[in-house]
Amino acid sequence: MVINVLLLLPLKAMTKLPLISMGGCDMVQKLILDFFRRRLSQRPTAEELEQRNILKPRNEQEEQEEKREIKRRLTRKLSQRPTVEELREKKILIRFSDYVEVADAQDYDRRADKPWTRLSAADKVSPMSLGSSSCT
């Protein structure tokens, strides 16, 4: 009867059981070992995990080799990049100021200025009266 009750208990409950004698301790230890053996036997094998693309089939050396190859390829691409001067000569890299006249402007905080707070009632109505009356 005790064994059946212990089989139904979760692992946390089994570890908190009061042990009366050494024989009871051995029995609980055996039950815990059996529980873990059952759980391990239900785990999928490495081959099954590889088939489901959960486990990578290659080893550490192959991964390091692949990383080195990617690093080498990217370094080569970076070294073959054209310079800024070459891009400007080919008209690929252009500046805004090359085509538009840019004047110096005074820097000031535009966030503090709220012109709509200074409008009078007449100013607020005047744009409405200038537009076409489509409300008729």
From TrEMBL:
<dbReference type="GO" id="GO:0043149">
    <property type="term" value="P:stress fiber assembly"/>
</dbReference>
<feature type="region of interest" description="Disordered">
    <location>
        <begin position="45"/>
        <end position="69"/>
    </location>
</feature>
<dbReference type="GO" id="GO:0005737">
    <property type="term" value="C:cytoplasm"/>
</dbReference>
<dbReference type="GO" id="GO:0004864">
    <property type="term" value="F:protein phosphatase inhibitor activity"/>
</dbReference>
<keyword id="KW-0009">Actin-binding</keyword>
<protein>
    <recommendedName>
        <fullName>Phosphatase and actin regulator</fullName>
    </recommendedName>
</protein>
<dbReference type="Pfam" id="PF02755">
    <property type="entry name" value="RPEL"/>
</dbReference>
<comment type="subunit">
    <text>Binds PPP1CA and actin.</text>
</comment>
<feature type="repeat" description="RPEL">
    <location>
        <begin position="72"/>
        <end position="97"/>
    </location>
</feature>
<dbReference type="InterPro" id="IPR004018">
    <property type="entry name" value="RPEL_repeat"/>
</dbReference>
<feature type="repeat" description="RPEL">
    <location>
        <begin position="34"/>
        <end position="59"/>
    </location>
</feature>
<dbReference type="GO" id="GO:0045202">
    <property type="term" value="C:synapse"/>
</dbReference>
<keyword id="KW-0732">Signal</keyword>
<dbReference type="GO" id="GO:0003779">
    <property type="term" value="F:actin binding"/>
</dbReference>
<keyword id="KW-0963">Cytoplasm</keyword>
<keyword id="KW-0539">Nucleus</keyword>
<dbReference type="GO" id="GO:0005634">
    <property type="term" value="C:nucleus"/>
</dbReference>
<dbReference type="GO" id="GO:0048870">
    <property type="term" value="P:cell motility"/>
</dbReference>
<keyword id="KW-0677">Repeat</keyword>
<feature type="signal peptide">
    <location>
        <begin position="1"/>
        <end position="15"/>
    </location>
</feature>
<keyword id="KW-0650">Protein phosphatase inhibitor</keyword>
<comment type="similarity">
    <text>Belongs to the phosphatase and actin regulator family.</text>
</comment>
<keyword id="KW-0770">Synapse</keyword>
